[in-house]
């Protein structure tokens, strides 16, 4: 066990609290909420800055500009012909989506660590995050219950607690994954709690709260496995991520790390996001091509 984890002799609540504090302190050295995303956030809030203001920020960063153009031309946003200028891409995507792309680009540093366990690499966590963000976005586009940009970001960061575990104790996370695969009936989160003192939901929520992200986003990371357990007033994004996670694990062609592919989707979840089973089936059909295009567009740059 890595030195960072609190003693197993502590009462569960105290152990959990210390584990969360240790992870937040350790990750603060690796990643802060991306400065460029904060800068874009200020432009988003300032109506007068407009497209030109956003273009001047994005245009300074070649890798970011390339990603914005690629995403604007991907299956999620295509429909009215090819986009070849940053201004048109920004208009097509919307300010929030551009901000999300900047956030995504910065977060990839948390996921760079190579092989983790047999058949699992740290990059699989990143691919999973993008896939859930894509599925979340497709669901939101068919529902009126949450803005697409918010839902995409919630999908992107929902398992960030696992990326935090990876940074703090890569070997420990590898052991948790191996153990979860060898005893499939035991909940992944129980194995995390036994190993670290808390699960990735607790780590993720604490990290996002420390970064000053909105409470609904914090709850999406903190309660995506059991959205009915969180504050109902803040649970909208958590429900979208919950359903998207299920779509990705069940239909994404890869087993989930923390979710069994056999689990059925609860009717309550379908209802909570304002959709029907028929619409979910529709999203499942649209998911694979959209996910591979978004993944290709958002690949971490080799030079950053
Ligand atoms: Fe999860
Ligand atoms: Fe997940």
Give a quick summary of the entry.
This protein has 304 residues and is mainly α. It contains 16 helices and two strands.
Could you characterize what this model shows?
It is a single chain. The chain has 304 residues and is mainly alpha-helical. The protein has a domain at 12-30 and 110-297: Orthogonal Bundle (Hypothetical protein af1432). It has 16 helices and two strands. The chain has helices spanning 12-28, 35-45, 50-58, 62-72, 86-93, 95-107, 122-141, 148-157, 160-168, 170-182, 188-196, 200-210, 215-222, 236-251, 267-272, 277-297; strands at 115-117, 120-121. A two-stranded antiparallel ribbon has the order 1-2. Helix 2 (35-45) runs antiparallel to helix 6 (95-107). The chain is globular, with a radius of gyration of 19 Å. The mean pLDDT is 86. One fe (ii) ion binds next to helix 7.
Q: How are strands sequenced across the largest beta sheet?
A: 1-2
What is the number of E strands? Answer: 2
The fraction of residues in strands falls at under 5%
- Secondary-structure element string: HHHHHHEEHHHHHHHHHH
CATH topology of the domain at 12-30 and 110-297: Hypothetical protein af1432
The unreliable regions are: none
Mean pLDDT level: 86
Computed over alpha carbons, the radius of gyration is 19 Å
Bound small molecules, by name, code or SMILES, are: fe (ii) ion
Estimate percent helicity. Answer: 55-70%
CA-to-CA gap between the ends? 32 Å
Q: CATH-wise, what's the superfamily of the domain at 12-30 and 110-297?
A: Hypothetical protein af1432
Q: Biggest sheet, open or closed, and with what strands and sense?
A: 2 strands, antiparallel
Kindly name the structural category: mainly alpha
What would CATH call the architecture of the domain at 12-30 and 110-297?
A: Orthogonal Bundle
Shape: globular
Report the CATH C-level class of the domain at 12-30 and 110-297.
Answer: Mainly Alpha
Number of helices: 16
């Amino acid at each position: 066990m890595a030195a960072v984890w609190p003693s197993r002799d502590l009462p569960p609540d105290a152990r959990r609290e210390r584990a969360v504090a240790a992870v937040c302190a350790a990750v603060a050295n690796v990643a802060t909420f991306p400065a460029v995303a904060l800068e874009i956030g200020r432009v988003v809030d300032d109506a007068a800055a407009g497209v030109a203001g956003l273009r001047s920020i994005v245009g300074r960063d070649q890798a970011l500009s390339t990603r914005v153009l690629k995403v604007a031309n991907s299956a999620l946003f295509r429909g009215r012909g090819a986009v070849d200028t940053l201004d048109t891409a920004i208009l097509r995507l919307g300010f929030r989506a551009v901000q999300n792309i900047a956030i995504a680009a910065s977060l990839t540093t948390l996921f760079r660590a190579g092989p983790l366990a047999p058949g699992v690499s740290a990059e699989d966590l990143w691919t999973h995050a993008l896939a859930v963000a894509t599925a979340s976005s497709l669901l939101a586009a068919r529902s009126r219950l949450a803005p697409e940009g918010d839902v995409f970001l919630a999908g992107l960061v929902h398992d960030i607690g696992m990326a935090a575990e990876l940074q703090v104790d890569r070997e420990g996370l590898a052991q948790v994954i191996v153990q979860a695969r060898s005893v499939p009936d035991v909940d992944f989160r129980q194995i995390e709690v036994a190993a670290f003192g808390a699960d990735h939901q607790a780590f993720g929520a604490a990290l996002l709260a420390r970064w000053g992200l909105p409470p609904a986003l914090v709850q999406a990371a903190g309660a995506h496995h059991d959205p009915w357990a969180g504050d109902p007033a803040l649970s909208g994004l958590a429900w979208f991520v919950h359903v998207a996670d299920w779509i990705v694990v069940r239909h994404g062609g890869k087993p989930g790390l923390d979710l069994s592919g056999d689990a059925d989707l609860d009717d309550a979840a379908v209802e909570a996001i304002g959709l029907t089973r028929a619409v979910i089936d529709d999203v499942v059909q649209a998911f694979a091509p959209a996910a591979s295009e978004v993944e290709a567009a958002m690949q971490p740059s080799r030079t950053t």
